[in-house]
Amino acid sequence: MDWLIRCSSLAGCYDIRYQYRLAMWDSIWINTHLATLREGRYGVVRRAALAAEGGRIAWVGARADLPHEPEQLAREVHDCEGRWITPGLIDCHTHLVHGGNLAHDFDLRSQGASEEEIVRSGGGILATVRDTRNASEMELIRSASARLKRLMDEGVTTVEIKSGYGLDTRNEMKLLRIARLLGESDAVTVNTTFFGAPTPPPEYEGRSDDYVQFVCDEMLPEVAAAGLADAVDADCGRATQQQARRMLQAAKALGLPVRLHADLDSDSGGAALAASLGALSADGLAYASDAGIEAMAAAGTVAVLLPGTHFFTRSQRTPPVAGLRRHRVRMALATDCNPASSPSTSILLMLNLACTLFRLTPEEALAGVTCHAAQALGPGANCGSLEAGKDADLAIWEIDDPAELAYAMGANPCVGVVKRGVPVHRAI
Amino acid sequence: MDWLIRCSSLAGCYDIRYQYRLAMWDSIWINTHLATLREGRYGVVRRAALAAEGGRIAWVGARADLPHEPEQLAREVHDCEGRWITPGLIDCHTHLVHGGNLAHDFDLRSQGASEEEIVRSGGGILATVRDTRNASEMELIRSASARLKRLMDEGVTTVEIKSGYGLDTRNEMKLLRIARLLGESDAVTVNTTFFGAPTPPPEYEGRSDDYVQFVCDEMLPEVAAAGLADAVDADCGRATQQQARRMLQAAKALGLPVRLHADLDSDSGGAALAASLGALSADGLAYASDAGIEAMAAAGTVAVLLPGTHFFTRSQRTPPVAGLRRHRVRMALATDCNPASSPSTSILLMLNLACTLFRLTPEEALAGVTCHAAQALGPGANCGSLEAGKDADLAIWEIDDPAELAYAMGANPCVGVVKRGVPVHRAI
User: Fold this and answer.
1) Both B356 and B271 in a single domain?
2) What is the dihedral sign for C-alpha B219, B225, B230, B231?
3) Would you give the DSSP letter of residue B88?
């Protein structure tokens, strides 16, 4: 037996070990502490071990409960030297693929310009539509890859990407194709969402109902037929409730799950609409009513909070966290990565912003970018917690306590990422 | 001549080029755009070049104005491929060397605990004093180095570090020695400040005047004699005005320049006190009076704003930016890196926070971490702008416009750092 253990670090002995039925797992991580994030709690296991087989988590528990020495149990043994492991983080709401940026708007705003003046000077969301349409696919891939890399450097292993800056069939499909392309990496899962954006393109100016009809009749069927979208999103509040409902009903008729930007600027009944459609998530929610929240709870709709957007737009209204807690609605957090209202690629900053601005606890914040974020992506997202059967997506952290992830402002203690059981990145 | 240009990339030909008096400079950066930050403005030079000799900037200007081909003018030619260069950034107010962290306090606070409850549970600033006193020098060096590296990764080439968590002679000097040690790097300049902290240590509980006397009579002379401090700081508001004045006058009597935490929680006359003592800077200033600001302007005292602290402590009061502008007081920005009120190592985040929360312009924000920050450190800091004679401390950025440095939240487009003419870091 001793001989087998010693030889386990040598290539060539695997067949022997298989023969003796000792090498059950591909990899095992030892000398670590886990925050498993089952059911929204840290679920801390100290002096733990975690094993992966075939890209999935095979075993999680206290090291002392391992039936044999780690070298007898797995072909690769990773010594974490006391570092923490959490589930790989999930950014469940981004507009990551877009052309240009709106730094000039930011500059003008800081000098006191009104939003109207900014739009008149050629800025605002339609500037991003113009820059996105004008950008080549290669330019969009390059800029989106850089943003995605920043998220991945912070331990993100799954990211949702919405279209919505193309606003015509060709360009919306271009954005979704690029999102799919980014997901061909072995290091990250990309979940795509067709976003029926609330601002019609210039060619539909003043005809928003016509644009919605066009989305329902032409864009959505093409997108669905091409298999480019995992879900469909709309905006109840910036578009009318009727417009948002039409788009999401059209999506459901095509068999696609739905999500909804809801009640971002006013109580527009968005939370209740999301619930009535069985939406995976309702996002934003600053002005959501208590009745809407109650309906979300009954429907199992996840609340995706966007603290970066709240901060960057200097919103005075925080989402109704007390009501969400009371009704036991799951709260997720996301960067909302977009040039107009949240030019951020830091998921860790979202944890700090959510705790500081919304008074989430660090535990709620971490659940918001792991298990609850996974639920916002639907049952296909087999990630977000450390338990047997889930994808072995792990983030490894140089911390003494998981609360540090939310406490620090602008630091990145991520020292390793594992995607489906394979180490993909090591910062130090 | 052609032959000389071609051979300039080969080792061994330098002597020939010196012989022909062609190799005037050590290095030149070409194919770049500069934000020179002279006198608080971007000072943009597009299609520029910058040359360094002996660690200092030798020439700055438009590439078209170079008298010869770059290869004829410098031994090393760095092609920036269109990237921007700014002065290396300066974090002019940090408490970077300390033991432990206060993530647990952050957690309790998010659960609704009052500051009194947090202190009763063993948290608060005296927890940091305890952790700092108990930490070995090696532990402090290790944790401070990690924080310093994060700052340097964002283009910081000069950082100020205050003592103030030791609160006895041995431990205060330990902190300052470690700060000096961190500054022995070729990659960063460390400016040290003895901070006469406003919270007396447990052994002086209830006897703050006695503690101030001890600082003036024993600590300061020892620190000065050891040459460990480049300046002395106190806190007018958390300590009384009289206590702060006594410490700074004692410092001045020892020939040390002074700075002052001023009016952070109330108008305590701190701004005026700083001005009356000819302080290099007054820091914080949320409650500073207009008269105090006017006095600072007359004295040339720099206003160091701390947006991270404002954010993390959820302060309702923003510093009087309009008054500071009206009286033409120079505004610097700093992380305030400390465990209690600004656990941040991101100078770039400070730019965004300052613009979003205080409505600084991106240009003011960048001046705040370059030329104005240099002035807060006194005339010994030969950095903060790109002009001949200044240290060749450079940060190289993957941006299209300097406003992007403040616009992005939690991104780091720094792709290179140069310290005294020598490339010290390259992120990509």
Assistant:
1) yes
2) positive
3) P
Residue A200, C-beta contacts closer than 8 angstroms, at least 6 positions apart:
A167, A207, A208, A211
Q: Domain check: are B266 and B339 in the same one?
A: yes
Residue A157: CB partners within 8 Å, gap ≥ 6? A88, A89, A90, A187, A188, A189, A383, A393, A394, A395, A417, A418, A419
**Domain at B411, CATH number:** 2.30.40.10
pLDDT for the residue numbered A8 = 42
| Containing structural domain, residue B16 | 3-87+386-425
Residues A194 and A112 in one domain: yes
Do B409 and A103 make contact, defined as CB atoms within 8 angstroms?
no
Q: DSSP of A338-407, one letter per residue?
A: BTTTB-B--HHHHHHHHHHHH---HHHHHHHTTHHHHHHT-TT---SS-STTSB--EEEE--SSTTHHHH
Both structure tokens of B419: 């310290």
Which residue among B339, B360, B377 closes a domain?
A: B377
Do A336 and A203 fall into the same domain? Answer: yes
Parallel/antiparallel/unpaired status of strands B56-62 and B44-53: antiparallel
What letter would DSSP give residue A13?
Answer: -
Q: Can you read off the two tokens belonging to residue B37?
A: 């930050």
Give the β-pairing of A422-425 and A414-419.
Answer: antiparallel
Cβ contact B345–A111 (<8 Å):
no
3-state secondary structure (DSSP) of residue B167:
coil
The count of structural domains within chain B is: 2
Nearest to B174 by CA among B213, B222, B218: B222
Rounded CA-CA distance B79/B88 in Å is 18
What are residue A249's phi and psi, to 5 degrees? -65, -40
Digit-coded pLDDT (tens) for B46-81:
999 999 999 999 999 999 999 899 999 999 999 999
- A359 and A227 in a single domain? The answer is yes
Q: What is the secondary structure of B186-227 as a DSSP string?
A: SS-EEEEEEE--SS--GGGTT-HHHHHHHIIIIIHHHHHHTT
Please tell me if residue A316 touches chain B, with a CB cutoff of 8 Å: no
Question: How many C-beta atoms lie closer than 10 Å to residue B126's C-beta?
Answer: 17
Task: Return left, alpha or beta for B167; rule: phi > 0 is left, psi -120 to 50 is alpha, else beta.
Answer: left
Helices B169-182 and B137-153 meet at what angle, rounded to 10? 40
Is the pLDDT at A360 greater than 90, yes or no?
yes
pLDDT at A12 (0 to 100): 39
**Residues B8 and B57: beta-carbon distance below 8 Å:** no
As a whole number of angstroms, the distance between CA A279 and CA A270 comes to: 11
pLDDT at A67: 85
CB contact under 8 A, B407 and A150: no
Q: How far apart are the first and last CA of chain A?
A: 35
Same domain, B165 and B233: yes
pLDDT at residue B89, rounded to an integer = 98
Distances (CA, A) of A344 to A148, A203, A239, B407: 11, 30, 24, 9
C-alpha to C-alpha distance for A366 and A351, rounded to whole angstroms: 7
Q: Chain B residues with CB inside 8 Å of A106's CB?
A: 355, 362, 403, 406-407
Average pLDDT over residues A343-351: 98
Q: Is A333 helix (H, G, I), strand (E, B) or coil?
A: strand
> Residues of chain B with pLDDT > 90: what percent?
93
State both tokens at A82.
């006391």
* Domain CATH for B283: 3.20.20.140
Cβ-defined contact of B407 to A343 (cutoff 8 Å): yes
Q: How many Å lie between the alpha carbon of A411 and the closest alpha carbon of chain B? A: 6
Same domain for A109 and A170? yes
Confirm or reject contact between B408 and chain A (CB < 8 A): yes
Q: How far apart are CA B347 and CA A260, in angstroms?
A: 35
Q: Residues A411, A355: one domain?
A: no
Q: What angle do CA A3, A9, A12 make, to 5 degrees?
A: 85
User: Under DSSP, is residue B353 helix (H, G, I), strand (E, B) or coil?
Assistant: helix
Sort residue A421 into left (φ over 0), alpha (ψ -120 to 50) or beta: left
